[in-house]
Amino acid sequence: MGQDSEHDMDDDNRKSSQSTTDQSKQTFRNVCYGQLFAVIVFAIGLTGGIFIGIYAYHGGPDSEKTIVCTNNQNAKGDGQTTKVPLATSPSTNGQGEAKKECPFDNPVKDTIYEDYVYAPLTVAEMNKAAKFLLDNSLISTLDAPTELTQSFILYQVLSPPNKAEALVYLDKYGSKPKRYAQVTVQRGAATPPDVMEYKVGPLGEATMTAIPQMKPGDIHFNSRPYESLEVVAMTKILLPDLEILKTLISESFDGATYPRDFYFNFFNGPPSTSGTERKTRWNVILSGFDKMEDIDLIHMLPLSGTVYNPGTNTSEWYAYDFHYLNQGPYNTSQDLMDAYNNDTIRKVKFPKGFRNTLYDRVFPKRDSTQPYRKNADKSGPRTYYPDGPRYEVYGTQVKWMDWNFEISGGQIRGPALFNIKFRDERIIYEHAVNDISLNYATDTHAQNNIIYADATYGIMGGDYPTKIMSGIDCPEHGTVLNTSYWWHVTQKAYSMESVCIFEADGQESSWRHVAYSFEAGLRNRHLVIRTPVVIGNYDYTFESHFHLDGKIFTYAKASGYIQAAFWDESNPHSPDKTRDAFGYRLSDLATGPVHDHMFGFKVDFDIIDKDNTFEIIDWKAGPQIEALKSQNPNITKVPDYFIYNETRYIQWNKVDKERGIKSPDNQGFMLVVNEREKNKWGVERGYQIAPLATGSQALKTHPLLNALSFTKYHCVVTKRKEEEQTLTSIYDVNRMDQPKSSLDKQINGENILNEDIVNWITVGFLHIPTTEDMPMTVRVETGFMLRPFNFFDRTASFDMPQYAEKYDGSLKESEPSFEQCAEPDNY
Across-strand partners of 780? Predict the structure, then answer.
């Protein structure tokens, strides 16, 4: 970002990056779209006048021809025979003449990200921060690290500016905040080793500093995130055990050998609850993929154990606690092998040839055993801009239909938006993904009570960089922005396609009404900011939808592979051969462990200004007298005009102290209002927080509730503090007994009336994997809506051109007309 060689997003670059797709499209058009029309000339009339009619011939269902089209992306390069109906090409008008191409002006007006306050760090900025740390001996190397005793960088993200300084710049023409990097360093070379975070910068100046953000030793070395050196060291320790267990593995798992057929999975955390010890559960997994193609978390094997791995001295690490088919623990691999040879334990024997079926089981390709659905050979519907894009992008700042905001984020927490305004009034200062919590339950040694906090691994660019799939994640006409991430394995910064921006046609009404004498409506169009991320086996997609009436919808969507567990058909705990207490059987040897996905967001409302109030409107039912007394306690009698004794009514409650709220606790509305700003009718202007379909935390006493306490609530409201930037610490899942940044610790009774407050919103879903999750989970989603609540004097979208027609012809309004045109070949 910020350099043409890395981030140029003009038309030429887009054309180059999509050349394969465009060649396929052009080939299809040139071959499949013939100029199919017949010109019939009729001589009409005794007067000798000649009328010429030109008709495009639209063949009926049986009017088709067979042609061969070559798909450039076909791996074998084979031609594919496709039946194409005889129809007028969409590239021609009704007279068979070629349509002109729709205009497409590049919406990107500026690509220098460093000029923007909240833009994610660029590759150049990361390299500059890293070199500064090396030059000042705060890290050991900028080459690929080889020893745990070295100090090296784990993550780099933008250190957000101080809010007070940012607001002076944004609102009062003050100085622009300088840009800093927040750099996480694994300090294996320190005595004792630990983890340190530095604020490094200003990045745009020659003179820089690196300010420690904690005291040495605050983050114990054994609380650090997992990284590649540790995985390599644990694998090396286990290799002798694999040799001892060679016969057990071969006989049990269809002749499998290491490393040809399986690999170790060490991500069955946490490594301890104290954070001062480190014990890593492991298991082995058959791989259906070729080397370096992908990871397979479907085919878990019933062989597992534990590695004792604290500190940096790997010579003191050792393996113990071996299990086979949940039988154990055996202190050593030899003890397990002896029990196997002596036939004193249950055994499993995979069907011969099972390993050869793995690729077809897991690779996400079309099921060739199934016929194509009828009309599947026809292209699906598409949308494009008949008059070109209606949004503009300046660096990472986006403008569309009175909306204005800046895109941000980083590899630890994920995507974020800052300074969200509508009609030049600030609504939200920060809207950001903060963390994702998962807890797995299953009846296996290695995988029971697995806990993940995905920010620990890096949500946007950990070991799995984001890659926008054109036409899948992003329509061809969308705008793609790059962000950067730091990969600890190589100690290098990389750029990746991360964010897709486009205007969507909802193809539905935003509002509508049909009356006796007229009809009117507005088509729902909205701006989408979409960020797909990959975290191991799961793919998440985060979206913010900005609507014409001031609503903002936020979605978290999940797809990818499930993390399965081994199905033990002879499990003595489960006489039912189709399911157990933790999930369903999904295939020959796999079960789907029950788990949850809880997404934590930070929403820092600034309704007009930063000092706001949180309010709950309770939706109640009761006697009429209660309803009336809720507003006027002096009322003693119910007026005669009330029909029934029970009624619905609402009651307002302003929350004066920091508080956590669970949506099921009450039927009501959660609001953020500005008590000093009123609409035309004297009502406080505000926004409603409305969770969409969401699950709730079912655990009551589990250790994760200390570190990941945000999962207990649907909304927590706290007073904003610079030192409380996030709802979790990335280290706390590895030290759950003593979390440093638990959200519960931020709820400490401070006054929040007319204060700068933050809403920490949690939504999620509970996942019981079923056969429909094999081989791939089809999109599951949750989210929340932020809705204007008396913020405007009337519906905000009535300033848009809309459709309205009186049946007597006295009034007819419509959206802007456009000339039919062809979708551009190249965006």
Answer: 558
12-26, 197-211, 357-371: which is most confident = 197-211
The model's confidence at residue 43, banded by pLDDT at 50, 70 and 90, is: very low
Please, are residues 253 and 286 in contact by the beta-carbon 8 Å criterion? yes
The full set of domains in the chain, from first to last, is 4-85 (no CATH), 109-217 (3.10.450.40), 228-362 (3.10.450.40), 394-806 (2.70.98.20)
Find residue 307's DSSP bridge partners: 280, 319
Q: How is residue 762 written in tokens? A: 């949690």
How many CB atoms lie under 10 A from the CB of residue 18? Answer: 17
DSSP state of 680: T
Q: Is the peptide bond before 270 cis (omega within 30 degrees of 0)?
A: yes
From residue 736, how far is each of 277, 311, 510, 741 by CA, in Å?
A: 12, 19, 46, 11
Is a pLDDT exceeding 60 seen at residue 114? yes
The Cα 150–Cα 233 span in angstroms is: 14
Identify each DSSP E strand in 747-824 by its residue range: 755-767, 777-789, 803-806, 812-813
Judged on CB neighbours under 10 Å (0-12, 13-18, 19+), 169 is middle
Give Cα separations from 44 to 48, 55, 57, 272 (angstroms): 7, 17, 22, 92
Position 203, amino acid: L
* Whole-number pLDDT of residue 665: 57
Whether the Cβ atoms of residue 802 and residue 521 lie closer than 8 Å to each other: yes
Residue keyed to tokens 């705008």: 479
User: Which residues face 548 on adjacent strands?
Assistant: none
Q: Amino acid identity of 717? A: V
CA-to-CA distance for 719 and 715, rounded, in angstroms?
13
306 CB-near residues (< 8 Å, 6+ apart): 279, 280, 281, 282, 319, 320, 321
Least confident of 48-52, 192-196, 755-759, 823-827: 48-52
The span from the CA of 536 to the CA of 149, in Å, is: 27
CA distance 717 to 655: 9
Which tokens sit at 617?
């409107």
User: What does the buried/exposed string (b/e) look like for 355-379 if buried means 16 or more CB atoms within 10 Å of the residue's CB?
Assistant: beebeebbeeeeeeeeeeeeeeeee
CA 611 to chain centre: 30
End-to-end CA distance of the chain: 20
Write out pLDDT tens, residues 402-456.
999 999 999 999 999 999 999 999 999 999 999 999 999 999 999 999 999 999 9
d(CA 755, CA 780): 36
The helices-and-strands tally (H runs, E runs) of the chain is 12, 41
Residue type, 162: N
pLDDT band at 465 (very low <50, low <70, confident <90, very high): confident
pTM: 0.87
- 285 sits in which H/E element: strand 279-286
DSSP designation for 445:
T
b/e map of 692-724 (b: 16 or more CB within 10 Å)? eebbbbeeeeebbbbbbbbbbbbbbbbbbeeeb
Q: How many CA atoms lie within 13 A of 276 on its CB side?
A: 6
- Do the beta carbons of residue 157 and residue 198 sit within 8 Å? no
